Amino acid sequence: MSRQPQLVIANAIVVNSHDRQEAHVVVQDGRIARLVDAALPVPAADNTIDATGKLVIPGGVDGHCHVAQVTGRFRTLDDYRTTSTAALWGGTTTIIDFGIPRDAQETPLAAALHKKELATQSRCDVALHGSVVSWDETVPWQLGQLAAEGIRSVKMYTTNRGSTMADGDTILKVMREMVRLDGLTYIHAEHDPIIADCTGQHAQDGRIGIEHLHRTRPELAEEISVKETLAMAEYTGAPVYFVHQSTPGAVDLVSEARDRGLQAYSETCPHYVTLDDSVYGSRFPEWFACCPPMRSAETVAALKERLVSGAIHTMSSDHSCYDLSQKRERTDDVRAMPHGLPGVETRMPVTFTAMTSAGATVEQFVEAFAAAPARINAVPGKGRIAEGFDADLVVFDPAEERTVDGSALHMGTDFSPFDGKALTGWPAVVVSNGRVVLDADGFHDPGAVGRFINRDGFREHQSAAPEASQLTAAL
Ligand SMILES: [Zn+2]
Predict the structure, then answer these.
(1) Cα 307 to ligand 1 centroid, rounded to whole Å
(2) Which residues are close to ligand 1, an ion, with C-beta < 5 A?
(3) Centroid of ligand 1 to alpha carbon of 318 (angstroms)
């Protein structure tokens, strides 16, 4: 006689990125064993959670999450235990971090292996992006080693001269290697000469404090860098993914490139579709120190339209956990401040509220929050509730509203840029690899059980798990 299932989520409205059904979700050995039509009896299980009237979605996949990041003299205040715990509190069951060289001596391979070691403390599943700052003859070999370690993407910055910036030669050569290795190129796109000049001009005029941040990094600096990078992607044939796009013009460049046949992707972050540059005139402008900065209200509205239209593919947190003492140390000079916002825990409610209040369906939310990040990053077993997929599940009541209290969250910091916002889309139950880690009793620490997920090749994964639109076209 076979064992009974470990867990059943009964009477669920199961919402995937392109469909929904009423079903009992049966979990065995950490995976989804099957979906049973809700009209049939609830299968017996060791543990049954009744989800009547609630939605059940795939656990979130946060494709852009910095853990224990060192940038210059700043180090984020979290570790894998903290960030993965906060992720699970927020309905995210897979995070993708970056192995970014901490200084000019650390190689891309060493940086990634260091992060992989830290990630053994994770409570949720983890994958990694590599990062290259400068080209040398060992880079192709290092990228091959990264691919063998399951790290199939490389992030490069077109700005941050003197720290993480990669020059055009490096970006082009790495793109070519990523084609060879069937990987994905991640780009932080801001045109460095414009940023450097504009920041320098503001410093000369004595307008370099945090209240001026948005004026020092103009929208056109982002757009011209996206344009230039797309040309390199077209030239090399490399699939390219733009992190944290903050302007409609930048997103439209990606859409136009896709129309020409490029494999180009657009990511944005919760703050860019919910907060505008008036925050720099608020009482606590340092809460909003990030690059790119918040944009005008008009830009935010146009960006949100593109999220709802599907032109933006993924919603990532760009989680970077500095606290207020770090943020407040040098508010007189944006060049000396740590940039980046804590957000791994609030990504679900901020995204859900922003999207559904603008007319998006829950299916579209699932696409941006879980399905597309899993598919584009070629993370096997994630982003979908279906037989054989990992049992990463979030149960929630879409009508339940809570107000963000930045001091009551679980990230390694003491504030949230979303403090005081009334949001819907809070997880009630979170299941990670079949374990109930969050429910009405609070968080149940599973210990350091998070797995390192070896990612598939980009093309390999896309052909095995095509976008739903392609599926429809093929029928
Ligand atoms: Zn980032």
Answers:
(1) 19
(2) 318
(3) 5
What proportion of the chain, given as a percentage, has pLDDT over 70? Answer: 97
ipTM of the complex: 0.88
CA of 282 to the centre of ligand 1 (A): 24
Residue 70: pLDDT band by 50, 70, 90 thresholds?
Answer: confident
Cα–Cα distance measured from residue 226 to residue 203, given in angstroms and rounded to the nearest whole number: 26
CB 65 within 8 A of CB 379: no
From ligand 1's centre to the CA of 442, what distance in Å?
Answer: 29
Structure tokens of 392?
């990463």
The 3-state DSSP class for residue 444 equals coil
Every domain of the chain and the residues it spans: 7-58+390-396+424-470, 60-376
Say how many Å lie between the CA of residue 392 and the centre of ligand 1: 24
What letter would DSSP give residue 50? E
pLDDT at position 132, please? Answer: 98
What CATH number was assigned to the domain covering residues 60-376? 3.20.20.140
Spacing, Cα 129 to ligand 1 middle (Å)? 11
In CATH terms, 7-58+390-396+424-470 corresponds, of 3.90.550.10, 3.50.50.60, 2.30.40.10, 3.40.5.10, to 2.30.40.10
> What pLDDT score was predicted for residue 467?
58
- The CA-atom distances, in angstroms, between 307 and each of 59, 272, 301, 304, 347 are 20, 11, 10, 5, 14
What distance in angstroms lies between residue 187's CA and the mean position of ligand 1's atoms?
A: 10
Cα(35) to centroid(ligand 1), Å: 37
